[in-house]
Every structure is written in C-alpha cells, then in structure tokens.
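Morning run. Coffee first, then this:
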Amino acid sequence: MKTTETTINFSTINKLAIPAIFAGIVEPLLSMTDAAIIGHIPKNATAALAAVGLAGSFISALVWGLSASSVAISSLVGQYLGKNKLLQLKPLVTQVLYGHIIFGLLLITLGYTFATTIFDLYKAKGLVHHYAVVYFEIRIFGVLFTLLTLFMFGVFRGLQNTITAMYISWVGFLVNVVLSLIFVYGLDYGIAGAAYASLIAQVTMFALALYFLLKNTVFDLKYTGGNHTEMPYFLKLFFNFIARTFFINLVLFLANRQATSYGEHYIAAQTIAINIWLFSSFFIDGYANAGNALSGKLLGEQSHEKLWTLSLKIIKYSVFAAVFLMAIYSIFYKQIVATFIDKTAVQTVFLQFFWLVILMQPINAIAFALDGVFKGLGKAVFLRNLLFGATFLGFIPTLFIADYYGLKMYSIWLAFAVWMLARAGVLFFYMKGVYKMES
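And here it is:
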C-alpha cells in the first residue's frame, strides 16, 4: 500500500481535524445530554445531576485509561502507513482486539461488584450515593463496547481517516438523545433510563465501527498465534499512556471529591463545569488528533524537519478554536447553566467560578495540541513523566493550599489552571528545543 509524502498545510490538517472535532465532541455531548435531561426531572434533580456527574466521571476514567491502546495503535498504524508496510501490522491489531474483550469483561465484573465501594470513596451520601450506584451499574456494561470502539477509531486515525469515526459517533449521539428522552420522560425510568440509553448507543457505535473496520481496511478478525514483533513496543506505549492517564483521572477524582465534600449544590455545579470543560477539551482535541495522525506518519517517513512546522500550525488552529469557545461561553454563560438545571443555588455556585473555565481555554489548546503530536511520535514516557510532575507539583499542592484558605470551588479551578499551564509550557519548550533545530 503506497503513500505519498505528507504535506503540512491548512488543507491537510483540517481534512483530519474537522471530522475529528465532530467525532470527539460526541462523547462529552452524551454526558452533557444525560446531565441536562436528568437535571430537569421533577423530583430530586440536584441529587440526580450530582450522581450522574460522579458516576459519569468514573466511567470516563476507566475508558480514558484503557483507551491508551487507541493512541498507541494510532501511532503504530501511522508509522507503518508512512513506511508502506501496513499489511505487516494485521496480526497485532487482531491480537489487541481480542485482548480488549477479555480485559473489558474483567472490568465489568469488578466494577459491578464494587459499585457501592467506589462511591463511598467519593464521599457521596444519601440520594447522591444511591443514584450514582444505580446509574453506574447499568453504564459499566458499556465500557467493553466503548473500549473496542475507541481502539478501532485509533486504527482509522492512524490510516489518516477521521471522518468514519465522525459518522459513527453522531449516529451514537442521536440514538442516545432519542432514547434518553423516551426512557426518562416518556417511560419515566428516571436516572436508569438515561443509563440504558447510553448503553444502547455504545453498542450501536461498536457494531458500526466493526463493520467499517472489516469493510474498509486491511484488518480483520483472523487470529494468528504468537506475539507480533511490535507487541513489546505497543505494550510499552500502552502502559506508559495508561500511567499518564492515571494522573489525569487522579486529578478529576480529587476535583470531584473535593466538590462533593462542599455539599450537594457544589458537586452539581462541578458536574456542569467539568462537562463543559471536557466538551471544550474534546472540541480542541480535534486538532490534537490531526497532530497525532500526521506526526506518526511523518515519523514513519523520517520527515523530522516538518514536525516543528506541524506543531506550530496545530497550536495556531487549536488556539483559534479555543478563542471561538471563549466567545460562546462569555456570551451565553447564563443560558448554558440554565440548560442543565433551574435550581438557583446551583446556578449561583456555578457562575461564581465559571470565568476561570473560560480563561483556561487558550492554555488548554496549546497543551492538547502538542499532546497529540507527542502521542503520534510515541513519546509515552515523556508524557507520563510530565503528567506526574504537573499533578504532584502543580495540581495537588494548589488544590489543598487554596482549600486551606477557604476558596472552595476556586481552589479546584485554580489547581486546574496551574496543571494545564505546566503541561503547555513544558511541551512547547521541549518541542522547540528538539525539533526546531531540525526544521
């Protein structure tokens, strides 16, 4: 399978980034849809919204941790595509797919068994705890399908194809929205209805992804015995990306746990804010995904001199996207919070700190843009170490020092700002120091 030399320009980047944006925002939109629908149920809306936020964030933590394989396979597929040796990677893709099935089933078993204990760790109590367990015990079954879907999306991305994932994601989104409205409002299933709708959407997306993998790529489900020669390299990337994602999830856990300790209204406001923050992250991450795909291919082509050019362009377009989001949030912030919940106490808490979420967007853009490039280059160890340092030297000290001085929700979002600033700064100066010299 021959490939042409990669050109780094507006058209090349946006051909990958625009579909990746529309595919990426579906995951947070699913969570936001659940939150908005649950936030307006007639009874115990605040507790239900807080519960969906806690359970949803924990499920996201599981998925993000294991979706490290998606990043690893994307990097490898891109490199092999650049070297015109894609067929040699077929056995590895199949082996990892089957490995995901085994691991996903184990996760479902453990998650369902320890559901109550998980939300004890969040300090959830009363109705919040009860609703979180109900929602989680249904959603945990979708983790297997989501892991497999994201892995196949990584294969598509490595093939420089982000549009297939976009189509699949939006079908899943529409299924989720329609079924959520039917189950929650039409059949009065409450929080369980939202969970069932998400589960069915996840199964739908998996089925479509598998169809396109088998129909439109060189990969199949024929298992060949013995480890592929790239398996050690893949596992190295995988476990280092998992370690990196662990620190991200630790940050989200500590943030939500801290908000929960302040009270029901605070965790409800945090649920809204973190959903918006994640939506922004996935929106901007479309350019990071383009950087992930292109940097892997450039590495395979040995076109090191183009990597600094790619980095600058990905940063520029990501910042433009971030400024666009800042404008939307600044104009419509009152309407945004009202979409989620009509409880005045929750809205008041949210509006006190949301300006911090808005101001963080350009910093996030730089961090996410370069994160994607580094993933494509297979810099898993560097990214792992960076997240370790940013978390334990930046986020955690800021969170507890600010909380000690009674800043409450400000302590959480000041800690997020320090964490993202550290990531963006280190990635930029490292990339400049190493790859600008070769451009």
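The chain is about 85% helix and 0% strand. Good start to the day.
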